[in-house]
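Write out this protein's structure.
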Amino acid sequence: ASSAASDVYKRQDNHTSVIIRTSSTPNVPTINMYGNSCIKVANDGCLVIAGLNANAAILNMYDTSCLDGCNLGGYGFYDAKGSLNMHGQSSIKNFLDGGVVSRNVSMDGGSIANCGNRTRERWGGGVCLHGGTFTMNGGSITNCSATYGGGVYVVNHRTFTMNDGSIIGCSAETSGGGVYANGTVIMNSGSFTSCSANYGGGIYVSGKYNGGLSMNSGSITGCSAAEGGGINLSTGASLTSKDGFVLCNNTATTYGADAHIRKGSKLPSAASMNAVYNADGNGRTITGWLSLIHI
């Protein structure tokens, strides 16, 4: 691992924070965690990893390394200019304010679990993408919560690409149980299951910044909301999809059990989802969409 110094300071909300400042390469500070190395919060605090002179930091997590808030600490990795790369069975877990706030995030494996955003902004319980890209090639985000984006919050005009992995059991008080996006969400594979919110149990995409959702492959099942149990797109948000994407078995208490979308959006062929829909063995089939549009 890179050599590092640490400071302890008191935030305005009286939560103790630890800053790990790398000193080996001030321009591109990097921290590598290997083996079963683990950094744990010992009291009601925040583990912040940052570079010297506020330069962007890079945290690489391998093997079974972990950041553990022990249900006491604020954030796991916090560097709005930095990058987080997770591999193997590495984990970030049990942080009360949120798991990750970072400019760029990649997950080739690993897990982010049991992180809940308790701060005033309440954006992104698992990951708050702050200005770059998030590419998920594997791993999982599980049981995370926030007001907006229980699993992932995508800031304005930015992109979350899901090539594999899973987002499970995440919840939002308002919108986007799995993901809330002011930018673009691209699903090439992977799954959302058992996520919940008032609007968009699986995914909520805002049209304010011309956000969009591309459903190329993967699944959103077993999610729930008041409006749009699977997906919810606000006015101005775009939707494209390919046949074979699975969007079924979601629920809503008002309308749009699977999808609450706008005119001009395209859903996948209903019949192409029958293999998953029939997994319970009852022999039921999907013959079409009952109602594509709600305005």
